[in-house]
Amino acid sequence: MTRELTSNALFSAFEIRSLRLPNRIVMSPMTRSYSPEGVPGTDVADYYRRRAEGGTGLVITEGVAIDHPAAVDNPRVPRMHGGQALAGWRHVTDTVHRAGGRIIPQLWHVGPLWGAMVDADPAVSMRPSGLWGTPGHTVYPDRYIERASAPVRAMTEQDITEVIAAYVRSARNAVDAGFDGIAIHGGHGYLLDAFLWESTNRRDDDWGGDLVRRTRFPVEVVRAIRAEIGPDLPIFYRFSQHKQQDYGARIAETPDELGVVLGALVEAGVDVLDASIRRFDTPAFDGSDLSLAGWAKKLTGAASMAVGSVGLTKSLRDSGVPEPADLSGLLRRVDEEEFDLVAIGRLHLADPAIAETIRTGGALPTYERKKYESRLY
């Protein structure tokens, strides 16, 4: 088992711009909320250090609030602005680098989902057309949906300009804090994704209408970040079909439509497309076994990353305790170069050395949500 996995493509090196990884295993972003007043402390640094020491090729931090007042509602989510927070991040990056690891932050603006984590006034939220989105299959409670569904004012041109500038400032802050690249959260119904989704973007100006115009805002964010950070550091971009508002929602009904969105993002400066789905190997479109990450790579030629219940038999939203899953299908897809990187979430909480566990053929842990999400292990 050890020899097989060591020679597998999963444990081959990967290089994108200046980022050089020893293997293809990535720690997926997971909100932990252990940064009081948005400031990551020594416990956060040690949390990420343990994953680097455990052999993970790349750590992507939990979502980090950009420098905008409506970015994230939870004060315990880390932010990428302010002297104390940036000093905290410098300690995090130094700690991970001393352990031989590489780390990038996921920049985050929740957009319409302001108030989903804590009780906060929905009127503060940034929404392309003032809409929360049509509720569907969701885990949010009725009381939140009722409150959040009330329309608020649509984003103005000034709002759009200010949010783009906030992304740029935060990306610069991240580079100055020693990160090895930038990740952008552009999925799940949050702000960037809200411009792509017809249910939340019903504008009829240059920022909405057809799919090309709905893509413009995330493209401008990427383009502005690329101009700020230069050509050396990579940009990862998380996208999804599903939304927190409705797990059945889609931004693309066909591969061609998906190609419109992803092709524009790659042209603007994205290097790695982080394809978020509840199960990484679910076929993205009828008539093909290709995963969402597989389609992202096929349509654009860019590197892609698979994520979603890797190593588990159940997705996050399914009931019951997920059992460890057979990895043979994952390894086959990596060997066949369907996608380039594999992001592992919950198993990284259960086992900081999950990369080494997989490499040596060890037993995968059983994930117990209450146990592993209640502390920084």
UniProtKB/TrEMBL annotation:
CDD domains attached here? OYE_like_5_FMN (cd04747)
| Domain annotation NADH:flavin oxidoreductase/NADH oxidase N-terminal: ranges | 10-361
Identify the Pfam families for this entry: Oxidored_FMN (PF00724)
Q: Which GO terms describe its cellular component?
A: cytosol
The molecular function terms in GO held by this entry are:
FMN binding; oxidoreductase activity
> What is the protein name stated in its UniProt record?
NADH:flavin oxidoreductase
